[in-house]
Amino acid sequence: MNITSKKPTVIYRGEKLENYDAVISRIGASYTFYGAAVVRQFEMAGLYTINRSKAITRSRDKLRSLQILAREGIGLPVTGFANHTADIEGMIDTVEGIPLVIKLLEGTQGKGVVLAETKKAASSVLSAFRQLKANILVQEFIKEAGGKDIRALVIGNKVVGAMERTAPDGDFRANLHLGGNGREVSLNDEEKQIAVDSAHTLGLSIAGVDLIKSKR
Predict the structure, then answer these.
(1) Cα–Cα distance, 198 to 150 (Å, whole number)
(2) Per-residue pLDDT for the chain (216 aa), expressed as one digit of tens each?
(3) 79-141, CATH topology level
(4) Where in the chain is the domain with CATH 3.40.50.20?
(5) Which cofactor does it need (predicted)?
(6) Within 10 Å of residue 159's Cβ, how many Cβ atoms?
(7) Where in the chain is the domain with CATH 3.30.470.20?
(8) Taking the model in full, what pTM does it have?
(9) Where in the chain is the domain with CATH 3.30.1490.20?
(10) How far apart, in Å, are the Cα atoms of 124 and each of 68, 114, 154, 166?
């Protein structure tokens, strides 16, 4: 990239990328920082980007995206966050006790996600993660979901497709990368609206929105 106030450009394999009207980005989780910088460079050059760089970085930050969604009244699992092992008891109490789900903020595809079914197990996992200087959050465990969640694909103001994912036997994580199974499902109007509202709240025009059913 050539970062200048005169004519910002993007160079790919020695060639300037010119004469383009729009950018549809697909950025792997491990390339978020660099990918968002490239999208931002295209924005500086005046190109239309389907998802703005600010929306991409906002949605990839688990804690920040949860805070934004909560502020706008989107239903979420009760979540706790702390930056020191001394706050472990408080984190557990924040989500109203055991069992609870512990997540690495930087984890993707179900990696770095642990279900703690006892207070001792939760304290042990939280302490271990904190010793590694890892940023973690805890969430209430939605038992009634039965190891299932829904991935809804939002484009603009519509849900154009949805897939129910089911965790493999002995696991609670429904990620396909971990052996989960997927099948096409239809959403009701309320579920569709939640998915669209969530995407718009984060500023995304195209998004995969994860939904989990609860008694609330």
Answers:
(1) 14
(2) 777 777 788 888 888 888 888 999 999 888 899 999 999 999 998 899 999 999 999 999 989 999 999 999 999 999 988 766 566 777 788 887 788 888 887 755 556 788 888 888 888 888 887 777 777 888 888 888 778 889 999 999 999 999 998 876 656 655 555 556 778 999 999 999 999 999 999 999 999 999 998 877
(3) Dna Ligase; domain 1 (3.30.1490)
(4) 11-60
(5) Mg(2+); Mn(2+)
(6) 20
(7) 144-211
(8) 0.82
(9) 79-141
(10) 30, 11, 38, 28
Indicate the residue type of 149.
D
CATH number, span 144-211: 3.30.470.20
Measured between alpha carbons, how far is 40 from 57 in angstroms, rounded to an integer? 11
Q: How far apart are CA 152 and CA 187, in angstroms?
A: 9
Class of domain 11-60: alpha beta
Three-class DSSP category at 214: coil
Spatial separation of the C-alpha atoms in residues 215 and 183, rounded to whole Å: 23
Q: What SS3 class is residue 108? A: coil
| Whole-angstrom distance, CA of residue 96 vs CA of residue 90 | 10
